[in-house]
Each structure stands twice: as C-alpha cells, then as structure tokens.
Amino acid sequence: MLDTELENKGRRSTRASENGVGRSLVGLRTAAICLLSAILLTTAACSKTPAKGEPTAYSGQKVVQSMESILPPDYWPTAGWKTALPEEHGVDSASIAAMVEDFKDHNVHSFVLIRDGYVLSEGYSQAVDADTRQPLYSVTKSVTSAITGMLIGEHVLTGVDQKLKDFFPGIERDAAKGNITVEQVLSMTSGLEWDNRGERSSNEMADSPNWLQYVLERPVTSQPGTVFNYSNGNAHLMSGVLQTALGVPISLYAKSKLFDPLGITNMSWGVDPQGYSIGAWSLQLTTRDMAKFGLMYLQKGQWEGKEIVPRSWVEASVQQRVAENYADGTRGGYGYFWWLKPVSNSGSAILDHDAFYAAGSGGQRIFVVPDLNLIMAFTGNNQKEDYMPEGMLFKATTAVKSNQPLAANAAGEARLTAALQAFKAMVDKPE
Prior knowledge:
Region (Disordered): 1-20
InterPro entries: Beta-lactam-related (IPR001466), Beta-lactam/transpept-like (IPR012338), Diverse_Enzym_Activities (IPR050789)
Mean pLDDT: 88
Domain Beta-lactamase-related: 110-385
Number of strands: 13
Protein name: Beta-lactamase family protein
Structural class: alpha+beta
Shape: globular
Pfam family, one: Beta-lactamase
Strand content: 5-15%
C-alpha cells in the first residue's frame, strides 16, 4: 500500500505557473505520485485460477484490429465534448446509475464515460468540477510515451533502439548502462536499480540536487531487457532523453504539438531542479481533457484529420512488452508506459474485452476499450482499493447492451440523475 503521508506531501508540492507549465521542486519526493500501486496489481502469488475457457489473456493484436474498425467520430471535441443520453449509444442508464451508487463513497473525485465520441455520463464529487485541473500522478508516464513516439516520427530520435550513451556523455564508460535502449526504458526493463519499498529511490531522487544524475548513477542490477521493475527513475530518465534531443522541456513541446491541437489549455506540468519536465508524474489536466487524450489514442493518434501521434507508435505502445499475471486472474502486461489487461472486477468475473490504460496513484485512470469504442477517465484519492477504478470500468462495460440505440428509459435516466446528485455531495473519507 502506498504511504499516505508521502502522497499528501506530493499533492502539497505541485504549483502551476501562468503559462501552464508548473514547477514542482519541493517534496515531489513522493513517488506516491508514481503508480507503485500498479505493481500491487501484478502480484503473481495472489493470482486466482480462472475457470476453464474464460478469456483471460490480453491480446494486442485484437486491440489493434478493434481500433482499425472504428470510424472517426462525427465531430471532434476540440472545442468541447457533446453529450448524449446513454441509451442513444446502446448503454443502459440504470446500470450506470448503479455504478455511481456503488462507488460514490469510495473517494472517487470524478469520472467521464465516453462512447462513440459522446459524453454519456460524468460525475464529480464535492471536491472538483468539470473545469478543475487535477493531478494525474503516473498517468503522466503515458503522455511521456506519446511524446517519445512523436519525436521518433519527426526524426528527432531515430527509434527505440537508440542507447543512453547517445544522449548522456560519459555514460559509455559503463558499457552495460550506456547500451540501455529507449525501448528498455519505456518497458521498465532498463535493469537500473530502483527500490520501491517505502518509495526509497523516488524519495532519494526528489531530495537530490540533480534528479537525472541520481537516476544515471543507479547501478545496473539485472541484464537490460530481461526484468520488469516499475520505476519513476525510468520515466524521468525518458524525459531527460527527450529534452536532450529537443533542447527544450517536453512540456513546452507537448503544449504546442499535443495539447493545443486537442484543445487542451487548462494544464500544468512540473519540472525538476534542472528544468526537466518530470516524466514520471506532475502533469495536471481536467477529467474531460484526460478523455480527449484517450480518444486520440483510440483514433490511432489522429485528430481532426491530422496525425498527432504516429499510428505505428500507438499500435506499438499497446503491444505487450512484459507479461504479468494480475491478482484478479487475468494475464496482461506492460507496453510503452501503458498498462494492458482484460476488463475484470476484483472478484472472479472477467469480460471478453481488452483495455489499455494509463494509471496513477489514488485512482487516476484513462481506460480505452477499443472493441466497445469506449473511454473512461477517472480521478480519485483512494490509496486502499487498488481495483476501485477497474471495478467502475467493469460496471460501465457491462452497461453496454448494444451497438444500436436502446429504447428510451425515463426511469433509468431519473435514477442516474439522482445518483450523480448524490455523488456531487460526497467528500473524501479519511483513510
């Protein structure tokens, strides 16, 4: 379980500048901003044996095939999302209401449910609203991944086979370290030492005067490319690679090349003492803008007829680079700073739908379920229930009844309205 005190220090430390690029230097020690809880989801010793014949293994090939079958939306939400009734897009309002009723008192802060490019339901606790910029914590890593693909597409980087020695002079003196590839960093298999117990390495990095130097001084403790070890150091190192290649912080590049085209203006992104954007955490967006990022990936990196992230990079990012057995009995893994798994709940129920998702501590998620043309964005402050967002996603996917409109459901709509009103009155419970 993540250290609550460290998490609180991290939240207090984030400050935003007027141009939307924040500077957070004091106490972002908390790599609770990271998603160490993602590791807790992948404890093989806790795995249940699924029933015979259950579809438990994530398939990157199926995910790509599903994305290929999705048409562009009939509008682009650059200037804002359009809304629709759930039934108009084959979703049962009463089932969404039940999801809200079940989870509203679990320190959820917000959610947005998108299908076919329309907001079918969204809810906010007393703490936030649709315009509130919220800390994404380790969801930031997936944005760092997107920028990597964009720079490869622009030939600023030559590819994922580039080595650390291409970017950091002097590191070649340690052959094993100098030959670590971009791909190994993105898949958390760099082999660099990183101690997640009590967030020791993340705290030490954030307390150090030079974060990149701290990461680069970690010894290689396993052969690069062979052992998965979730690491804030890898993600911040990736930011260092990108800024070295670009010559400017990736937050500035992202603003002009990624966020502005999507109509995302309410954002901030912290930097380390040397001015490197924090690649592991510290990005802040609204929940609706989180969903825009998910839609852009669902649309294979396209937005309004233009390529934002290369399609080839989107497809490569959601392929399984590391295999993991999750605690719910599913088999998935890790791509390029994206988590990959079938949709399931915390029990034994598993659905025949694969999701790729960005995940951050406390309940921050961007879920993309391509075969349902569905996106869900979440924020929260729940350090004790690792599967809380996954449980909400499970309820939402079971609410999808058809690819055609359903009959109007006045009773279901009324129940959903009441559930969202009750959710808006909720405040966080002490943990």
